[in-house]
């Protein structure tokens, strides 16, 4: 995990009126194994000579599988039994005498790190007892202190579980209610404090304590080892995350636990050793008895840990990692291989998995859609990116191979609780962070939690435009939205400008939304460095971006009431760009709904529908090309069969002349070239609108005038695809440095424009307009 801006720890003074609530929580935790006691305390500087304790070696958790030797790749132990005792009311009365304050952090130097030392216990229901100790960075870097780093999902629950933080490692752990009361009566509890943590972290620490075999466990946990309410410390520690995870003996990945009625994780974790054995491969794919195991793995890969943005850094930097799920443990390499095998075999398994979910889990109808895919799963992206992220150099050092822009854009659907970490989560692992890969005089952004979200995003966009010499970033859906409510470490809430597009509106959304299938079309500009269009020219005609970033916008003091009832400070965040206006939208249809291309769209693209026709002889060029944006799968070169495939589809129009893509797909063989064409049509048209535009002639003056409509209309109409929010009267423009046309909306009574989004305009995707239009226009985007 990494620093999040939700208040992870409830650190506050304990007033008299708060004591009964805290006491009752404490008593509930002691009497209920589901809510074990927690507390907190200050960290102390240490003397290594005072540590005669045996610490647990985390690499003992699990070893990678040697193929093809058959072995059990996991350790499994009995879960703690559930038992309760009586006398809760009496316990509360006694505990009131022992109630103490919550933990208060002591400052540490910028070259120091805290570690949590969890004390062993043979009793599963014993409260968590621990100590916070401070170490110099050098002690962790040179291996003098062995420790584990925890990777987990914070979750959305309240911090209502308790861990007891004691000042000394040798202090007697509090193991029962009576111990607590006796110590309180003897005034021995002054060095024990309570820290409130969230449920998932509590479960993780309890399980790791059990697995540590009666030894002290030195572990780094972001929510505890960083004072989340100290922005300065938080920024310093975030910059050290790379070394903290890389220098750890092991990274422990905590996926979570199943509910009592579910056995998803049990089946999946037990299945992994068999899944990665090549001797079992054919049987596992062909025999129906293994479908429930594959289905369990499919469900496990949807767990929230795989949608966290910070896990990419935590895992990529790990020298050794283990995966923990309930009481199961397995080596990350085995888990990684199982994911890779499953993803590679998914097309073979997909039909039977869909049928399995349909017959066994009727409440999971979301699995039955044709968007039953795994391509956008966080687990798959995680395996893909971590396999290629680092390259080992001859001197033994590891260098990142992927730049910041690519990491942010290609991993945009990973979520984080603090939207500023959209950028911060990748700063330590991007290519530019390597000393040998500085990008000219441009400075890589640094985490600064005193900045608001707009300041962080604006700095990132400016950095990308300056280093890439491209404006495509404003066409990509990469940004996480602003919080709904302000937190103690949020400087202010802001409204983002239209030129910062939210990942929520991307093809698959963000976080756990990706598991529900496609919601929009694929990006036309593609990932950084992979654009297949050249609307702003190529070669000597190529137009580099001409962008002005006004000075860092100061927040306007007047606050307006947001639609959700929260106060948002408004930034005047303007971006001034240069380009040419080539047309005005004169027609747009409703967004294509779930794979149906309406008749009026086909006819405007040149098709003459005739229900009585015996054959389809000719397919208009702009028709078959526009439906696939004149490119093949994922924006690559289009196959030669696309025209023929479109001709076949036109034979299968509905009685009213519409093209129902999903219906045609159901009737098409898996290997048929028509299937490839239709899947590309879906990826291009999903939730986009067909648009028609009146061209603005090259010799006409700037359109930034009241008479801009009068300068449009002559010449052949423009046709293409635009964002779902496109309206009649919007401007079709080509911005210098942008590889595709865009749609802009004039703001009435001003010289400003809203950025609506990218567009495909037939015949204007490869620099044609740049050679035709001489006069350029400045657009002020807000």
From TrEMBL:
Residues 147-314 form the Heterokaryon incompatibility domain. InterPro entries: HET (IPR010730), HetReg/Transcr_Mod (IPR052895). Pfam families: HET, Het-6_barrel. PANTHER family: ANKYRIN REPEAT DOMAIN-CONTAINING PROTEIN 39 HOMOLOG-RELATED, HETEROKARYON INCOMPATIBILITY DOMAIN-CONTAINING PROTEIN. This is Heterokaryon incompatibility domain-containing protein. It comes from Phaeosphaeria nodorum (strain SN15 / ATCC MYA-4574 / FGSC 10173).
């Amino acid at each position: 995990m990494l620093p999040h801006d939700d208040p992870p720890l409830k650190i506050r003074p304990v007033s008299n009126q708060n004591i009964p609530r805290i006491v009752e929580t404490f008593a509930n935790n002691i009497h209920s194994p589901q809510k074990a006691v927690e507390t907190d305390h200050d960290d102390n500087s240490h003397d290594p000579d005072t540590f005669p304790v045996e610490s647990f070696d985390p690499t003992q958790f699990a070893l990678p599988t040697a193929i093809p030797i058959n072995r059990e790749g996991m350790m499994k132990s009995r879960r703690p039994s559930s038992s309760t005792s009586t006398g809760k009311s009496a316990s509360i009365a006694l505990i009131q005498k022992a109630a103490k304050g919550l933990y208060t952090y002591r400052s540490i130097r910028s070259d120091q790190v805290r570690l949590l030392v969890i004390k062993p216990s043979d009793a599963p229901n014993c409260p968590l007892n621990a100590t916070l100790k401070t170490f110099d960075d050098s002690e962790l870097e040179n291996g003098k202190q062995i420790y584990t780093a925890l990777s987990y999902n914070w979750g959305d629950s309240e911090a209502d579980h308790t861990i007891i933080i004691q000042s000394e490692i040798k202090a007697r752990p509090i193991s029962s209610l009576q111990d607590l009361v006796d110590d309180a009566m003897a005034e021995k509890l002054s060095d024990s404090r309570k820290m409130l943590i969230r449920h998932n972290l509590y479960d993780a620490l309890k399980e790791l304590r059990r697995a540590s075999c009666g030894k002290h466990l030195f572990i780094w946990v972001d929510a505890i080892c960083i004072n989340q309410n100290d922005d300065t410390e938080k920024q310093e520690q975030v910059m050290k995350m790379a070394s903290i995870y890389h220098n750890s003996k092991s990274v422990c990945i905590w996926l979570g636990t199943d509910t009592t009625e579910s056995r998803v994780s049990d089946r999946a974790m037990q299945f992994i050793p068999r899944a990665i054995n090549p001797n079992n491969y054919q049987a596992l794919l062909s025999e129906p008895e293994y479908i429930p195991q594959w289905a369990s793995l499919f469900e496990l890969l949807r767990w929230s840990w795989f949608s966290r943005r910070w896990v990419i850094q935590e895992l990529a930097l790990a020298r050794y990692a283990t995966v923990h799920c309930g009481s199961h443990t397995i080596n990350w390499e085995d888990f990684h291989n199982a994911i890779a095998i499953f993803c590679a075999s998914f097309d073979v398994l997909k039909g039977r998995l869909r049928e399995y979910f349909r017959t066994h889990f009727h409440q999971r109808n979301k699995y039955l859609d044709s968007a039953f895919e795994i391509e956008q799963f966080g687990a798959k992206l995680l395996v893909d990116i971590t396999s290629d992220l680092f390259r080992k150099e001859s001197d033994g050092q590891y260098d990142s191979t992927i730049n910041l822009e690519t990491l942010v854009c290609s991993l945009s659907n990973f979520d984080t609780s603090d939207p500023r970490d959209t950028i911060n989560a990748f700063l330590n692992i991007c290519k530019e962070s390597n000393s040998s890969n500085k990008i000219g005089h441009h400075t890589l952004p640094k985490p600064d939690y005193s900045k608001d979200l707009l300041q962080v995003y604006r700095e990132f966009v400016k950095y990308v435009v300056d280093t890439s010499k491209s404006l495509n970033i404003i066409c990509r859906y990469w940004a996480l939205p602003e919080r709904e409510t302000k937190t103690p470490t949020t400087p202010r809430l802001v409204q983002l400008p239209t030129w910062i597009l939210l990942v929520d509106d991307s093809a698959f959304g963000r976080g756990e939304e990706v598991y529900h299938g496609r919601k929009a079309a694929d990006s036309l500009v593609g990932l950084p460095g992979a654009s297949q269009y050249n609307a702003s020219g190529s070669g000597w005609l190529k137009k580099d971006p001409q962008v002005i970033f006004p000075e860092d916008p100061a927040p306007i003091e007047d606050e307006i009431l947001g639609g959700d009832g929260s106060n948002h400070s408004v930034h005047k965040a303007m971006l001034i760009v240069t380009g040419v206006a080539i047309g005005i939208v004169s027609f747009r249809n409703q967004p294509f709904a779930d794979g149906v291309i309406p008749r009026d769209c086909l006819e405007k693209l040149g098709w003459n529908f005739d229900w009585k026709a015996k054959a389809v002889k000719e397919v208009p060029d702009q028709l078959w090309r526009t439906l696939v944006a004149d490119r093949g799968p994922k924006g690559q070169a289009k196959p030669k069969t696309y025209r023929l495939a479109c001709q076949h589809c036109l034979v299968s129009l509905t009685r009213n002349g519409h093209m129902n893509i999903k219906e045609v797909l159901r009737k098409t063989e898996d290997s048929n070239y028509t299937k490839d064409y239709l899947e590309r049509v879906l990826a291009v048209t999903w939730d986009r609108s067909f648009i028609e535009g009146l061209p603005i002639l090259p010799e006409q003056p700037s359109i930034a005038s009241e008479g801009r409509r009068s300068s449009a209309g002559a010449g052949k109409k423009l046709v293409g695809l635009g964002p779902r929010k496109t309206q009649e009267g919007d401007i079709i423009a080509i911005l210098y440095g942008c590889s595709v046309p865009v749609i802009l909306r004039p703001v009435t009574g001003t010289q400003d424009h809203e950025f609506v989004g990218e567009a495909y305009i037939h015949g204007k995707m490869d620099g044609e307009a740049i050679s035709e239009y001489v006069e350029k226009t400045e657009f002020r985007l807000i």
